[in-house]
Hints:
By secondary structure, this protein is of the alpha/beta class. The protein has two domains: 8-276, Vaccinia Virus protein VP39 (Rossmann fold, 3-Layer(aba) Sandwich); 300-336, no CATH class. It has helices spanning 14-19, 51-65, 78-88, 189-199, 215-222, 234-246, 273-276, and strands at 8-11, 26-31, 66-76, 93-101, 115-122, 133-134, 167-168, 205-208, 226-231, 252-253, 256-257, 259-261, 264-269, 280-281, 295-296, 314-319, 322-327. It has an eight-stranded mixed sheet, with helices on both faces. Residues 177-184 and 304-336 have low confidence and may be disordered. S-adenosylmethionine is lined by residues 13-14, 32, 34, 42, 44, 185, 187, 210, 212-213, 215, 230-233, 236.
Amino acid sequence: MDVMSHNTILQGDCLDLLNRLPNESVDLVVVDPPRKLKTKIQAGTTGATSYWEWCQEWLAEIVRVTKPTGNILIYGQPHRLLQYAAMLREKTVFRHWIVWDTLSAPLGKSLPPSHSGFLHVAKDKTLNTFFELRAPHKRCRSCKVLSKDYGGKKALLHPFGPLVTDVWTDIPRLRNHFQSTELSEKLPQLLWERVILMTTNEGDLVLDPFAGSGGTLLAAKRLGRSFLGLEQDADVLAQATERLAGAQVDAKIRGAWVSQHGSQLITIRDVDWPKLAAHFFIPDPIADLETAPLMPKTKLSRKRPKPLSSSEDSLFFQLDGKAVTQPRKRKNTPLK
Length: 336
Ligand SMILES: C[S@@+](CC[C@H](N)C(=O)[O-])C[C@H]1O[C@@H](n2cnc3c(N)ncnc32)[C@H](O)[C@@H]1O
C-alpha cells in the first residue's frame, strides 16, 4: 500500500515504513513508544543493538518527516522523556514539557510515579502550529462552587474556563477494564484530543508510528484530521482498524472542533470561544459563575419543576433559552 495513503494503519516495522515517507510531509507526530524491545523483531531490520540506539533511529526519522510548521509530542515517564529530549536537542527546538497528573493514591511507599507526560518539540519555534486551549473551571464535586478563590476578580472570569497550563490534572487515567477497550488501552482519548487540538488544524496529517490500539488515530478521525498509523503487530492492528471503522468525524459543536466526555466539554481552543459561547447559558453577571456552572442550551433543564403560572397543569422547561409550558399528565386521566 502507498505509504502516503491517509486515514489508514499500515502493518510493518516503523523504520521500514517511515523510510518511505517523504521529507516534511507530516503536521503532527504523536508517539507512545514501546517501553522496551521484547524481541529482535520489534527493532525491525535495523542493526540497533540496544533499545536507546533503536530509539535514536526512529527519532531521526520522525524529525525528517515533520513539516517546518509541524510538531512532535512524545509520551512517557520523566526518565524516558529526559533521554528523548537529549537525543532531540540538536535537531529540534524545545516547546513544552507537559505533566499529566495521573491522580494516583500513594500506597506502600513515598514518591511513587504518579505523573507522566509529553515532551513537545518542533522544528521551528516561530513557525510551528500552536493553539491556546481552555478547560472548564474546576469545581467542588458536591457543591459545584469554583475550587479556586478569584477574590475581587470574579467579574473577569472567562465564561468557559482558564487557559490550559503545562500541568494537566483534569483528565483522569483509565482505572479499570470497564473503561478500557479489550486491548486495555492505558491512555485516555481526551489526552490525545487535547494534543491534537493544540497543534493541528482541520485536515492536517497526524502520524503515529506505534499506533497500538489506535487511540491517537481515533482522536484524529473524530476531530476531522487526516491520520496515518504504523503498527507491527497484526492482531493489534486488526482491532485498531475495527475501532476506527466504527468512529465518526463528529467532535464538532457549532462549527468548532472540541474534545468532550459525554455532553461535557473538556478542551476547546480559545479562538473557538466566540462560536461556542452561543451553545451555553452564560450567567449574568459573570461573577455568578462562582456558584453556577455553565449549562449547555441543548441540555433540557428540568431542575425547577416550579410552575410558571399558578395552574397545576404546567411544568417549567428551558430549551435553547425559551421557556415553555407543557400540560402535566394526570395519573388519573381516564383511558379513552
Ligand atoms: C506503547 S504501545 C502504543 C499504545 C498506543 N498508544 C495505544 O493507544 O494502544 C507500542 C506499540 O508499538 C508497537 N511496536 C513495537 N515495535 C514496533 C516497530 N518496530 N514498528 C511498529 N510498531 C511497533 C507495539 O506492537 C505496540 O502496539
